[in-house]
Amino acid sequence: MIHSSGVAAASDGSTGSGFGEASYGEGGYGGSVDDTDESNPAVTTGEPTEVTATSATLRGDLTDTGGADETTCYFEWRESDADDWHVTASHHLESTGEFTETVANLDSDVEYEVRAVVETGSGADVGGVRSFRTDSVDGEDETTSGPTIDRFELVDRSNPQWARVQVQWSVSGEASLERCVSDLVRGGEPLDVETSAIDGTADSGKHTLRNRGGRGETYDVRFTVVDADGNTATETKRLTV
User: How far is C-alpha 220 from the geometric centre of its chain's CA atoms?
Assistant: First the structure.
């Protein structure tokens, strides 16, 4: 079974350092693909497909759930010479199988790296790193680049009654911007959303997302900016409150 999602647009901002060697990499759950503990899940990174000058479809394969009833699978990607990893939206899989995610607003003729990640309550695994290069674009065919997320930070403002996350953001673009949207998601279920209209090529502000109760839970916060030409940029961060 192949699990896929809609387009998850990318941006030039970074969302963190990823798992790296000090956590799930060589010093943690990573290591030899053949040396797999039965209590840990397993994932492999597939060859990216449908690569264009500005987008690519990332592919992963959950080969072992590690006995978990549900797994959280996603991708980390970056430019090959970058230090920090971007994180895509999560897929919550109950059985083994392939999953995909499309990233957009990539730079043309640039080499990128991607790796698949799976997490459960008892373990995690990181697939091997795959590289791909976006197509080049003739100068006369180039269009205005999409919007950029310059700042995307999360602040825990929870109280005993509400799980509350403040989104601090700033955005810019060559074309006029239209709107930005913050979404609060848990286990793939949308819980709250806030939208701001934008008039101009730059803006900043704050969104507050809430869920009654829900303290001690882990949430995905997805932030998207859209310009007047329909171009988008999206980043996702995870937070436990």
Answer: 9
